[in-house]
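New to this. Please check this fold:
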Amino acid sequence: MQTQRILIIEDEKPIADLLAYGLKQEGFIAYQAQSGADGLELCREVQPDLLLLDWMLPDCSGTDLCRMITQEYNIPIIMLTARSHIEDKVHGLEAGADDYITKPFDLREVLVRIRTILRRVNRAAVSNGDWISCGDLRISATEMTVMRGQTPIDLTPREFQ
């Protein structure tokens, strides 16, 4: 199985470095961005398997970025933020985050939550020969086709990629 890629969008470099170090120790590939714009660009480039996202970024709100990413990609997102009120947690989850962890955090808990989400995502995508299925969606990489149930979905090569 391919090594999983985690994108950290966090403006506090010591926190981002700690997360990246812990992820690398666990066998993940870690990428870092310190702003929303850089994070969005890196997300497009590396197509991460999971995103760790801070709420308070210098150029945008993490919840706004979360909405943008979930509209364009199907990437699990864990909000990792100092905002700890229940209203903030609800807002973050409603913005599209799959999980919400408040700072200060224990690195072990972050790693366990990442593995839990990735395990669930990997179970949802079941491979059957050449086809990969997730719910009623089936994808064939060799034929470059996508089916929803029995209906083919027309995609350009770029959209399929």
Observations:
- The longest helix spans residues 107-124.
